[in-house]
Design brief:
The complex is a heterodimer of chains A (about 290) and B (about 300). By secondary structure, chain A is of the alpha/beta class. Chain A contains 12 helices and 5 strands. Chain A has a single domain, classed as Rossmann fold, CATH 3.40.50. Chain B folds into 2 domains: about 160 residues, 3-Layer(aba) Sandwich (Rossmann fold), CATH 3.40.50; about 130 residues, Rossmann fold (3-Layer(aba) Sandwich), CATH 3.40.50.920. In chain B, helix 9 links the parallel strand 11 and strand 12. Classes of the chains: A alpha/beta (about 290), B alpha/beta (about 300). The interface between A and B is medium-sized, with 30 and 28 residues.
Chain lengths: ~290, ~300
């Protein structure tokens, strides 16, 4: 079905790669596609949270290309790794990654927010192959992941549980309840990643509820802590590998990111937690992304 | 009731080694037989009900029946959103158990009075709600609850409640209501541990020449609509009794079901009148203060029948 300029939605987003196809096994390419879809989906839906979708792009792309043991043809494979996006408002990033990795047709992404669609603004497992757990209210994911990791260990299984958190989300007390428990139970197959874009709903984290010294807090809770550039796919991959190899305690990767990363006028501007890209802003964002297409 | 629960749970745990009990750091003495017998099936999540409930959801999604256990409002209201989003929405096989429904912890104060739990949990799609009336009903309900998939809420009393059924309740199927006493003048419908008062009130009414039927509803959601329909046909007056607010709880559930039958029967609700208890005392003292002990049930029923 035509979407724009005689192209389907998929062709429109993939236009720069035509007549070939993007190599979605490349984390740089997948991160770019997550942003490109994020822009298009929030444009179509007049949706929010593009800043968070952009900040988490490399975290999701590295997970879905280099780290997660998952199978698009068998999303409920017993020994799959589990991924929970606890900051559910960046759900479009998960949908885009899953679609590009073959869990469902890319064309369906244009249904984001649409009447009757399963592609809700906050990530939902109902009707979306590959989504492990529904979130949207902050502070739930880490404790759910703790339960999953406990279950794997009780069964003697080797799969890992990954939980992607927001930094603002770490205001929630339930995050720290789970941090205590995961450490107490020694869940070394639980790996948390904080998309530390330094901003939350109304302002910078530092001006809202101070998190720093953030890494020290996790370390004090007994976690194995790494701090990396969350837009450097190689650094992220290396951090994940170290976390996978670590034993005896759960791991957290604090990934320093930029809210709105990839579109200069969106970066570090809280407006883009809410604002939807329309008109000239949509076009300028699209051109800037296309100019930096890998 | 809690001892009957632990007995029933232990029987099930022997057959189902994937059953896990998580406590929110409560159950001193009561749960000891369980953790001594099944240490690999027991977790203390600490004083962290939100994480306990989310963790239970995650754990259940690895193919387990998971029970969360705490007292009063802690396993329910404190972590309501975790029950809604993480358990119920995911059809997670989590059974939430509250010890101390109503005024069981009467002297401990308002924080420990669980008087809105049924209404709140009943409102959540996908949550089955049980409130057995005595230890015999607990023994009947628990195996059925553990057999069914999905998220359930079990409201228990505390300890030491008398058994009111003459014989063990056998062959119970959800959501069956249980007739304790036959009568002809008025039906007393009861849910949860207040059944002791309802049965006693029926005895008092008999002394006044009023024949009261007593029916216990160990399952509030779904509710035994057939029994309600039958009672609406046989009686002009139905009285519901619950140690809980009358807003949205058992009495409300009965009214909802009865209205749909087109009944002309009048339904009177006994329970907390949309208020919190601001005083403390024994369970029986508070039941008396809030007009839901046996004497009050008897007197209020007589007044309604005369009016």
């Amino acid at each position: 079905m035509e979407y724009r300029d005689g192209m389907t939605y998929t062709q429109w987003v993939h236009a720069g790669f035509l007549p070939g196809e993007p190599d979605v096994s490349d984390p740089e390419v997948l991160a770019w596609l997550i942003r490109r879809h994020g822009l298009e989906m929030t444009h179509i839906s007049r949706g929010s949270h593009i800043g968070a979708i952009f900040s988490v792009a490399e975290i999701m792309s590295v997970l879905y290309t280099r780290i997660l043991h998952v199978d698009p043809s068998n999303p409920s494979m017993e020994d799959r790794d589990r991924l929970i996006l606890s900051k559910g408002h960046a759900g479009a990033a998960v949908y885009a990654a899953l679609a590009e990795r073959g869990f469902f047709p890319v064309e369906e992404l244009r249904q984001h927010y649409a009447n009757g669609s399963h592609l809700s603004g906050h990530v939902s497992h109902r009707g979306v192959p590959g989504v492990e757990f529904s979130t949207g209210s902050l502070g739930h994911g880490l404790a759910v992941g703790t339960g999953m990791a406990l279950g794997a260990r009780m069964d003697g299984r080797g799969w890992h549980t990954f939980v992607v958190l927001g930094d603002g989300e770490c205001d929630e007390g339930s995050v720290w309840e789970a941090a205590l428990e995961a450490n107490h139970f020694g869940l070394d197959h639980l790996i948390a990643v904080v998309d530390h874009n330094h901003m939350q709903s109304l302002d910078f984290c530092e001006k809202t509820i101070r998190l720093e010294p953030f890494g020290e807090k996790w370390a004090a809770f007994g976690w194995h802590v790494q701090r990396v550039d969350g837009h450097d796919v190689h650094a992220l991959e290396e951090a994940f590998r170290k976390a996978l190899a670590h034993t005896g305690s759960p791991s957290v990767i604090i990934a320093d990111t930029v809210k709105g990363k990839g579109v200069s006028f969106m970066e570090n501007d809280i407006l883009w937690h809410y604002r939807t890209p329309q008109g000239d802003e949509y076009e300028a964002a699209r051109q800037e992304l296309e100019a930096h297409r890998p | 009731m809690r001892d009957a629960f632990v007995r029933a749970l232990m029987r099930q745990a022997a057959d189902d080694r994937r059953l896990v009990l998580i406590t929110g750091d409560l159950g001193f003495g009561v749960l000891k037989p369980f953790w001594e017998t099944y240490p690999d099936q027991f977790i203390n999540a600490g004083i962290a009900e939100q994480a306990m409930t989310s963790m239970a959801a995650g754990l259940s999604l690895t193919g387990r029946t998971v029970i969360t256990y705490s007292i009063g409002n802690f396993p329910t209201l404190r972590c309501l959103e975790q029950i809604r989003n993480d358990c119920a929405y995911h059809d997670a096989n989590v059974k939430i158990v509250c010890v101390g429904g109503g005024f069981a912890y009467g002297s401990l104060g308002m924080s420990h009075h669980a008087t809105e739990d049924i209404a709140v949990l009943r409102a959540l799609p996908g949550v089955t709600v049980f409130a057995p009336g005595d230890p015999a009903e607990v023994e009947a309900v628990v195996p059925e609850m553990l057999k069914m998939p999905g998220t359930c809420y079990l409201r228990l009393g505390r300890g030491g409640e008398p058994t009111l059924h003459d014989a063990p309740v056998t062959g119970w199927k959800m959501p069956q209501a249980l007739t304790i006493r036959r009568g002809t003048d008025v039906a007393l419908l009861s849910s949860g541990g207040i059944l002791t008062q309802t049965v006693s009130a029926a005895g008092m009414l008999a002394e006044k020449g009023i024949s009261a039927e007593v029916v216990s509803f160990p399952c509030v959601k779904p509710i035994d609509r057939e029994k309600i329909s039958e009672l609406c046909t046989r009686f002009a007056h139905l009285v519901t009794v619950e140690e809980h607010t009358i807003v949205g709880g058992f009495g409300s559930a009965v009214c909802e079901a009865a209205m749909e039958t087109g009944t002309a029967a009048v339904i009177h609700r006994i329970g907390m009148e949309d208020t919190y208890s601001t005083i403390v005392g024994t369970q029986q003292y508070l039941r008396s203060c809030y007009q839901m002990d046996d004497r009050a049930i008897c007197e209020r029923t007589m007044a309604w029948l005369k009016a």
